[in-house]
Amino acid sequence: MAVYTHVPAEDLSAFVARYDIGALVAAKGIAEGVENSNYLIDTTRGRYILTLYEKRVDTADLPYFLALMRHAADGGLPVPRPIEDKAGEPLQELSGRPACVIEFLTGISVTEPTPALCHAAGEALGRLHAATADFGGVRANALGHEGRLELAAKCLPRAGEIDPALAALIETEMAFQKAHWRADLPQGTIHADLFPDNVLALDDTVTGIIDFYFACTDARAYDLAVMHGAWCFSNDGAVFYSQRAEALEAGYRAAHPITAAEAAAMPVLRRASALRFLLTRAWDWLNTPPGALVTRKDPMAFARRLLHYREAE
Ligand SMILES: Nc1ncnc2c1ncn2[C@@H]1O[C@H](COP(=O)(O)OP(=O)(O)O)[C@@H](O)[C@H]1O
Ligand SMILES: N[C@@H](CCOP(=O)(O)O)C(=O)O
Fold first, then answer.
1. Residue owning the nearest CA to atom 20 of ligand 1
2. Which of 103, 129, 157 finishes a domain?
3. In sequence order, what DSSP letters do the residues of 54-77 get, joined into one string?
4. Which of 48, 53, 105, 116, by CA, is between 20 and 30 Å from 81?
């Protein structure tokens, strides 16, 4: 359940009145999502998403995320445009939290994507990379190579509470990444979390790319590696679907080239991405207090992906 901050109805009405979007007629909390509180709001003029940014998002990064979303929307991507208030300001405060209203986009997130949707999603990523090539914003990846190694070291002492083999898996992967990570791959603006639940689709057509709150500047090909892990396995990581992977890469190549160096680095990037999601899930698994309204995601689902990548070499 991702409504951490509950906003009283009268505050919501007053908040909506700051914008030129009509009067509030309905609002409901959205259960999906992990990081922030989201409300679906209907006004006399249309439908919008209201996001209240919770503690895990650094307020200083919000102007970067909102500028990136606007840039991508201006570039023709199906990315929700942040709505400005009557004074031209997209970033607000509500119930003691930074808050923003963004466009509502139609579509649903699928859990078992077809190869056709994988193709469309890969193409959408390629288009996003092309459209953001001239985006001026820069944000370091807190979960980049160094960040992953730091988080790995923090997870190691208690990894055995999740699975007896997990500490060894993390340790050996840290050694591999230290030896093989390449810092010289083409850099760009990456989404960094383009899982199926962050893509809205209708009939194998992508209608929305959402949740830019991990976006950053990093190796462009890493973004495709993230999608490989997120889109091409069963949810528990036990089954790899090669047709999805072929379609994903073909879709990306239809919109953006992959250099020879990027293609050669892909096995390392995929392992790095599997490690990243294994680690953040493990950290949350070990540190989410009982009774928190967050659904913890299974770290072992990404341990299995990591093992698959190792065995595929
Ligand atoms: N612009 C949008 N249009 C339609 N639905 C959206 C939009 N943004 C978010 N949502 C809905 O809200 C849910 C949570 O949003 P998300 O940004 O993924 O939250 P979180 O950052 O907490 O993970 C999504 O799964 C989707 O159902
Ligand atoms: N995609 C990550 C979790 C991040 O959650 P999101 O709702 O912000 O996409 C994972 O699956 O571990």
1. 33
2. 103
3. -TTS-GGGHHHHHHHHHHHHHTT-
4. 116
- For residue range 136-163, list pLDDT tens digits in order: 999 999 999 999 999 999 999 999 999 9
**How many domains does one find in the chain?**
2
Ligand nearest to the CA of 193: 2
Gyration radius (Cα) of the chain, Å: 20
The rounded distance, in Å, linking the Cα atoms of 128 and 118 is: 15
Whose Cα sits closest to atom 19 in ligand 1? 33
Domain boundaries, position 212: 115-312
Domain boundary, last residue among 44, 75, 103: 103
How many Å from the N-terminal Cα to the C-terminal Cα in the chain?
39
- Tens digits of residue pLDDT in 57-116: 889 999 999 999 999 999 999 999 999 999 999 999 999 999 999 999 999 999 999 999
pTM: 0.96
Q: Examine the domain organization and report whether 64 and 167 are in the same domain.
A: no
- Atom number, ligand 2, closest to the C-alpha of residue 230: 11
